[in-house]
Structure formats: C-alpha cells, structure tokens
Write a structure and sequence with these properties.
S16 Ribosomal Protein, Chain: A, five-stranded mixed beta sheet, single chain, elongated, alpha+beta
Length: 124
C-alpha cells in the first residue's frame, strides 16, 4: 500500500482549514485516512505558532514506514527541520509573459526614438 502524508481540506467556502493526514495514496483528498498527524490553518498570519501544528513523533514514524509527503507537506517538514532542504527550480516564475514582453519592447522602441530625436541636430 503506497502511503502519503498530505493535506485533507476542511472548513467552509473561502475559509480553508487543513488536516495533515497519513493516507493511502489511492483514497480521495478529503476521503478516508489512517491517522491525523496535525493541522494547517492558512488563514492565520505566517508568524503565528498555531498556523502549523504536527505530532512530530508520528510523522517520523510514518516517514520511517515509507510514507511520501506531498510537496506542500514536505515544505512544512523542511521548515520544522525534520527533512533536509530540497533544491527546487521554478524556471518560468521570473519570466514575463507574452503581453508584458511586448509592452516592454514597445516602451523601449519609444524611448529609443525619443532619445534619437533629442540628440539629432536642429536644422535651420
């Protein structure tokens, strides 16, 4: 059985609240799970102690049993110092889109034309 440590969503619309659970990977996101390991409340401020609470002993147990954390849970475990920090690359995050690139080129062309017109000698 492939085990995952993942988030199960709760809370009402636009007010999310997540349980950190150990579940079979074949079960639905909010479906059956084996054990609740903690909570994650994303609506709280990032510096709040109550934002993420986990039972580290049980998390360590499930990790030793071969459970794989999802990306978001892995980031929480890295922040808690349980897992080593993993290098991630989001190569397209800093690249502007097509429209922004076109606007930048247009703006550069206008600036170059204005500079050329200002530097050209006046004919009399």
């Amino acid at each position: 059985m492939a085990m995952k440590i993942r988030l199960a969503r709760g809370g009402s619309k636009k007010r999310p609240h997540y349980a950190i659970v150990a579940a079979d990977s074949r079960m639905p996101r909010d479906g059956r799970f084996i054990e609740k390991l903690g909570i994650y409340a994303p609506m709280l401020p990032k510096d709040s102690e109550d934002r993420v609470k986990m039972d580290m002993d049980r998390v360590q147990h499930w990790l030793s049993q071969g459970a794989q954390p999802t990306d978001r849970v892995a980031r929480m475990l890295e922040a808690a110092g349980v897992m080593p920090k993993k290098d991630r690359q989001n190569l397209k995050k800093g690249v502007p889109g097509k429209a922004a690139t076109a606007r930048a080129e247009e703006k550069a062309a206008k600036a170059a034309a204005a500079a050329e017109a200002a530097n050209a000698p006046a004919e009399e």
